[in-house]
């Protein structure tokens, strides 16, 4: 086999791999549950080039025990747990027991309830020309995610919630 044929065969194999992954992601987006989740924006520290938002998802937690950190202990270390993800009544819930999709979360107290904060952030890539509005008082950043059968949630789009209404951002 000549070098040209080997190169074309290798290119075809790589193209098939990329197209099969893209097809799986599109299939999951069409068939798996989608839900809006409150997120916390924080400054990314990754060597990836380009513009992106790094979001930590925050959602209710069930079945976990919160451990009050001591003087020389860290909350994130004391309360890091594996959580199974479930969509119930249009809301993402972290459960201590279950099956299916899951991820590492940090359990925190929020008033009288427990909330889970994703340990691994969701990266949401945006165009270089996109204008991201600053949050005003009373506004929250939310992200719509697909919940796959395995693995962490996958971001779809981002929006701002004000007065109980989520308005998706047009970042094109």
Structural overview:
With 172 residues, this protein is an alpha+beta fold. The protein folds into 2 domains: 1-31; 34-168, no CATH class. The protein contains 2 helices and 10 strands; from the N terminus they run H-E-E-H-E-E-E-E-E-E-E-E. The chain has helices spanning 3-31, 75-78; strands at 34-42, 52-62, 80-88, 91-95, 102-110, 113-118, 122-125, 139-146, 154-162, 165-168. A 5-stranded mixed barrel has the order 2-4-3-5-6. Strand 9 (154-162) and strand 10 form a beta hairpin. The longest helix is centred in the N-terminal third of the chain and has 29 residues, at 3-31. It is globular and about 70 Å long.
Spell out the key features of this protein.
172 residues, five-stranded mixed beta barrel, alpha+beta, single chain
SSE order and pairing:
Blueprint: H1 3-31, E1 34-42, E2 52-62, H2 75-78, E3 80-88, E4 91-95, E5 102-110, E6 113-118, E7 122-125, E8 139-146, E9 154-162, E10 165-168
Parallel strand pairs: 2-4
Antiparallel strand pairs: 1-2, 1-8, 2-6, 2-7, 3-4, 3-5, 5-6, 8-9, 9-10
């Amino acid at each position: 086999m000549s070098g040209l044929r080997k190169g074309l065969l290798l290119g075809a194999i790589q193209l098939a791999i990329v197209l099969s992954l893209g097809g799986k992601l599109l299939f999951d987006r069409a068939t798996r549950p989608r839900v809006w989740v409150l997120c916390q924006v924080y400054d990314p520290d990754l060597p990836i080039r380009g513009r992106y938002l790094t979001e930590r998802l925050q959602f209710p937690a069930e079945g976990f025990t919160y451990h009050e950190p001591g003087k020389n202990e860290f909350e994130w270390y004391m309360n890091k747990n594996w959580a199974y993800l479930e969509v119930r009544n249009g809301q993402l819930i972290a459960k201590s027991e279950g099956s299916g999709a899951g991820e590492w979360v940090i359990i925190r107290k929020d008033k009288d309830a427990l909330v889970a904060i994703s340990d691994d952030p969701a990266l949401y890539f945006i165009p270089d020309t996109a204008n991201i509005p600053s949050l005003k008082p009373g506004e929250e950043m939310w992200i719509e995610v697909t919940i796959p059968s395995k693995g962490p949630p996958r971001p779809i789009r981002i929006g701002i919630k004000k007065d109980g209404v989520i308005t998706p951002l047009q970042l094109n």
